[in-house]
């Protein structure tokens, strides 16, 4: 299925399940939808809408622009197509930041925000050094793997799979989980990744952002994997700012908590959907 944005870019989208709509926002930036398991787990609780962000995955290749405002407008085009009035949103990692930005811009169009494995609204310096240390420690479990990862260029499939393997607490199954993320391999949009990552960092830790979150009259569920290599304390700033936030931390799960604790993830969503 195709959704066309207001500037004519064609976005890949798909809907499955039954019930009220739940639009998913994948991580990255520059990646593609990897939510097959989420759609399967939640399909009896909601009509799950998946889409690839502009210039990524199965969506039309384009020259951007790579800005949060542009992606918020694209998300609104997807929302209008599947939910003319309001929708629940679920964002993961970078997609959690996007879903939050959309909710702050259009609170009347969002019934519920599910913020999964994001990094909060405080400065990046509060969590990124620990993340980098944890990433290198995970990859360094095998010195040859770490050396190979360091020599591969940005956007390389092998390098991405090696890095993604660090995202899982179950070290025995981590390579299998990472390989599944790359199947099919749709290519990383490295320009999109670099520009949106830089813009997102500049927009954090501002008085305006804290004030907007404090004024948000939309229920928010924050879902974390306890063993995410990004310190979960990064999300504390967002939780404190939001007036209508609940938080679920899934023990033994990493950055993709629905993979390592599907039952806990489903239970957390079942409590708020519908």
UniProtKB/TrEMBL annotation:
Gene3D superfamilies according to UniProt: alpha/beta hydrolase
Entry keyword rRNA-binding: no
Family: Belongs to the peptidase S33 family.
Name assigned to this protein: Alpha/beta hydrolase
Keywords attached to this entry: Hydrolase
Record SUPFAM superfamilies: alpha/beta-Hydrolases
Any single GO CC term annotated in Swiss-Prot or TrEMBL for this entry: membrane
Organism listed in the record: Streptomyces muensis
One GO BP annotation of this record: proteolysis
Residue ranges annotated for the AB hydrolase-1 domain, each copy included: 21-261
Single Gene Ontology MF annotation: aminopeptidase activity
């Amino acid at each position: 299925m195709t959704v066309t944005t207001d500037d004519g870019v064609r976005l890949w989208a798909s809907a499955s399940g039954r019930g009220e709509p739940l639009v998913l926002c994948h991580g990255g930036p520059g990646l593609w939808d990897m939510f097959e398991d989420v759609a399967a787990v939640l399909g009896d609780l909601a009509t799950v809408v998946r889409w690839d962000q502009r210039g990524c995955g199965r969506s039309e290749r384009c020259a951007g622009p790579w800005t949060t405002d542009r992606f918020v407008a694209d998300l609104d085009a997807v929302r209008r197509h599947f939910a003319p009035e309001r929708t629940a949103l679920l964002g993961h990692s970078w997609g959690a930041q996007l879903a939050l930005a959309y909710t702050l811009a259009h609170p009347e169009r969002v019934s519920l925000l599910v913020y999964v494995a994001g990094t909060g609204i405080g400065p990046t310096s509060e969590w990124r050094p620990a993340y980098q240390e944890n990433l290198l420690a995970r990859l360094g479990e095998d010195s040859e793997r770490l050396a190979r990862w360091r020599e591969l260029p940005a956007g390389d499939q092998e390098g991405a799979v090696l890095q993604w393997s660090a995202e899982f607490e179950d070290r025995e199954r981590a390579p299998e989980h990472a390989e599944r993320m790359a199947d099919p391999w749709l290519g990383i949009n490295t320009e999109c990744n670099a520009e949106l990552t830089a813009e997102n960092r500049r927009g954090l830790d501002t008085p305006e952002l804290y004030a907007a979150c404090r004024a948000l009259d939309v229920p928010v569920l924050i879902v974390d994997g306890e063993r995410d290599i990004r310190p979960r304390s990064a999300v504390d700033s967002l939780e404190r700012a939001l007036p209508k936030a609940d938080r679920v931390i899934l023990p033994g799960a990493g950055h993709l908590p629905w993979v390592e604790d599907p039952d806990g993830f489903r239970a957390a969503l079942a409590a708020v959907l519908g």
